[in-house]
């Protein structure tokens, strides 16, 4: 009887291990492809594991330089931006270009009339 109980215990542990492996694999695929729409069926442990720590530039402005694919090297309103081209932060944080203008080299210019930036930045 003792051997049957041990065998049953081992089978139960293997099934639990397989279920956890499958759940982790599915969670990793969701993290790579897209965020899951529902947390139903996901354990609290897996939810804590999948939450990503966010680094904000308001506390550490140098993070904008170190993150590949960031909006730019400068930090404005907790967002990485490029002050030389960002239309909402042209040359300084909060300086917005008017609707018909764009930010080129840190200046708001009209691409329809500007000789140095004709149609786009840097196009003479």
Automatic annotation (TrEMBL):
InterPro entries: Stig-like (IPR006969). It holds the Pfam family Stig1. Keywords: Signal. Residues 1-23 form the signal peptide. Belongs to the STIG1 family. This is Stigma-specific STIG1-like protein 1.
